[in-house]
Amino acid sequence: MFISMEQRIFRMARAGGIDTNPTTFMQRANTFASAATQYGTTTMLTRREQTGLNGYVIMPAEAARSKAALALAHTVGAKSEETQLPDDLGDTPVIGTLTFRPSPVLRETQNGIDPSEFPKLLANTMPEGSWVAVSLRKPSNRERKFHTKWHNYRLGNANPQHHSYSPSAIMISVTAGGASQDEVRALLGQFTSGMPGFDLDTDVRFPKTRHSSWLGVPAGLLLAAATIFGLPQIPLDLPGFTAPSLFAIAGFLLVTGLAGLTGRMRSPEVKLRAKLSAAQFPPPPSRRTKPRPPHKEETIKRTINEGGEKKTIDKHIKAFDGDYPFAPDVFLVGPTVVVGMVSPHAGAISGETVSRERATPPAMLQPIGPFIGTNQDGKAHLSAPAMTFSVAVVGRPGSGKSLLTRTLFGWHCLERVAPCGRPGYPGRNNTLIAFESKGDGVAKYQAWGHTMGDRTLVIDVADPNTPGIDLFAVPGTNEEKALFFTNAMIYTFGKDAIGYRSATTLKAVLTAALAVNDELIESIEGRDPAVIRTGMSPMYYAYLLLAGRSDKVGVELAEGIKARAVKLRERGSPDPVIEAGWAAIAFLYDGTTPSKRAGLVEAPFSKIEDLLALEQWWSPSRRKVTWDQIIEGHKSVIINTGTSATGAVLDDSVNHAISSLLMFSLQNALKRLTSGWLEQQRYVTIFADELSLLSGSSPEVIGWIRDQGRSYGIRAILATQRPEQLGPQLRSNFLTYATLISFSQTDVGTAQEIAANLGGHGEWTQEDIQFLEPFHVVIRSEVDQKRQSAFIVKLPNFEANMASYPAAQGYVQAAA
Length: 816
Ligand SMILES: Nc1ncnc2c1ncn2[C@@H]1O[C@H](COP(=O)(O)OP(=O)(O)OP(=O)(O)O)[C@@H](O)[C@H]1O
Ligand SMILES: [Mg+2]
Hints:
This protein has 816 residues and is of the alpha/beta class. Helices cover 39% and strands 17% of the residues. It has four domains: 7-209 and 322-350, no CATH class; 212-266, no CATH class; 379-470 and 626-810, Rossmann fold, CATH 3.40.50; 483-618, no CATH class. It is built from 29 helices and 26 strands. The strands form six sheets. Strands 1, 2, 3, 4, 5, 6, 7, 8 and 11 form a nine-stranded antiparallel β-sheet that branches. A nine-stranded mixed β-sheet has the order 16-19-15-20-21-14-22-23-26. The termini are far apart. Magnesium ion binds next to helix 11.
């Protein structure tokens, strides 16, 4: 107990890359685990210090001699440097321990994720001064045996794939320190969710701040009182020493209680702190009692003897999950689950940068367009003319894509207000269309427009007090409008969701729905005015015609359309629109049996129902503008498909649907209206901070922007979090936009793909992309249609001071 084992401590300093090949990583982690647990307890410690995030390993000198630190360094892409034991861990304001929380459900495991993710997550979440420590020891055979039973029962099968079955599995306990209980809870919560493959539910326990003997004070007082007042009441003949001995016990309780209260008896917390001050983490404890094994629900037959008669009865035994096989603050895990915590590959925060700096192409150091960022070579600019070949922005969540997109919006506002007049600059005749997918960017887009002196219109999909965009506003008959809208729906939901037959039905009911007007509705005799309502959108009438309410209501409305057509014809004033409406749905409603009709309307119905969730958007009572007005009028609009300023929220699926419908109809309008605009020096610039919402189910629209958009004067600045979700065709189209701007990427595959797209025959590696520092980007672009080599810049936060932006961009006069 009192042997102070000689300990050594090593820091994991960054060296080279981390080998993320799962097999290599696992082998190395196992080597470390067996060396580290051979001679006692080893602890891995990650601390957020002033210098950044540092990983340490504290181990018995014996383990160090057997090169355990070296093995760990190898695993996590580091060099192990011997250093001093920290002596201030005991001073952390709050220390907490992770404990098991019984739960029937397994969390989704993160098996197979990139081990370098874990330290990055920690780097992002650990406040300065906080730390997490994982102590490890070998499991005993007994512990393994109980675990196997418990775990097999939990999973319902034996799962030898699970990391905890690895022969190198280790018992761990996790302690963390931070400024407050909340901070420690949050930290340990992040920690467990970051451990790849860890799938148990957990709680956090804080060591007791008083020795439990303090309870002796109330207990002693109670006992004394009971002796004084209670004893004489007992009518038994008690031996004479009863009262004195009870007083003695009460006195003893009081004394120890007072000792507990005044800190003479050291509380668990004080003991722990004393240990941590010497960097001595206690080994993961063992369970005190034998765990009860799990068993299934069952009914057994029992023979009992009742009044001399033998009887068989059924005895029901409830299922039992079994006791957690270890002490509550101990977990059995494969080494790969935890070793990543000390990896120094958490980006800039782990010390020196890995992404090598590259020379900036001299052409891009000239003022040829928006000044985008700085580096060792000076100020880098994007070429204004090259932006007609579109700009692709990629980066992991929270990297700064939206801010960059909005900043470029600001630059275009500036050009509209004070055109600099240089060739290829977009100038005044430039329609701006910004898609905001979350909602929180709307105010910032507005602020950009306003601060640059431009006017902007906000179209907030979820807020009926802002105008909507009329998605049926294409030239032609109702039949043509219906066909157009059906195609928009196919783009949005995919050919699988809307096949040929569904498309035919959709087009028919939309043609009819567009013909419906209030007079027609009012002419329907005996209708239920709450169902067949006036003043509703075509989407609503299409929904009724698809038997959305009931077949009967569908028939009533269809008959109404027919009757109206007949009546007007008989009056000598036939209405061709209503006639066409009826003609379109005759195949559904002219003598068709309800069951046949049901077969035809079933599939398209659900998609219309999705869109109907947004009746206020389609409603005729909402003020509408058309794409034609926006584009031809060179307006600047911000379209918000996210949470509105009023707090209304769109469902994710509705957000996606409406974004894609908008994009499809925008492209239709562009094709109709802007052919040849480049020559006329008229432009439409599209900004979107989440491309995947706009891209519908097929790559064609976004692909068209790159391939044909230029001659239409289209400039697109499109960002996405997860290019891997775009589908191979769209992704390769997107990543080959003339300008590619990449923030750091966590997905290894994507990082690799981006590196490959930066060109230069392997000059850029996946790691260069993974380890970009915050707010740094790689830019690969063109000047005068010549590809420039890629380089890195740091992006200033222009949004923090918009008023100074015009001057920073060389528009000094315009700032007025
Ligand atoms: N160049 C910068 N300098 C300083 N802070 C920045 C910079 N760019 C972005 N930020 C800050 O980083 C945070 C995230 O930025 P932003 O919303 O643009 O990220 P994102 O990549 O669009 O995220 P998401 O993928 O979640 O949409 C914001 O708080 C923003 O203010
Ligand atoms: Mg964003």
